[in-house]
Amino acid sequence: MTDTEQQMDWRLERVVLELLERRAPTATICPSDAARAVYAGDDDGWRELMEPARRAAQRLVAAGEVEITQGGRPVDPAEARGPIRIRRAR
User: Looking at the domain that runs over 3-88, which CATH code has it been given?
Assistant: First the structure.
């Protein structure tokens, strides 16, 4: 992993936590919220950051900071397929 990739990973993790801090304690965000927040352009290049944003959420789950949900229920990040939401760990 390059330094640039590592910096982006760290930045995505930080942004996920910052976005959740700005919302109600029970609120969720989409990985696209984090991807859009860190993407510098004004086109749809943020889409390339979707998988890195999902991986950032998975690392935050492992750290006990957040939960990944589908259908409002926590799911194992390794088994999550399709759209996910991220919320503060409960």
Answer: 1.10.10.10
**pLDDT band per the 50, 70, 90 thresholds, residue 83:** very high
Q: Are 16 and 66 in contact (CB under 8 A)?
A: yes
15-56, pLDDT tens digit by residue?
999 999 999 999 999 999 999 999 999 999 999 999 999 999
Give whole-number Cα distances, 90 to 23, 51, 85, in Å: 15, 24, 14
The count of other CB atoms within 10 Å of the CB of residue 36 is 18
Question: pTM (2 decimals)?
Answer: 0.93
CA angle 88, 69, 46 (to 5 degrees): 85
CB atoms within 10 A of CB 17: 16
Q: What CA–CA distance (Å, rounded) separates 12 from 34? A: 6
Alpha-helical runs (H) found in the chain: 3-21, 31-38, 50-62
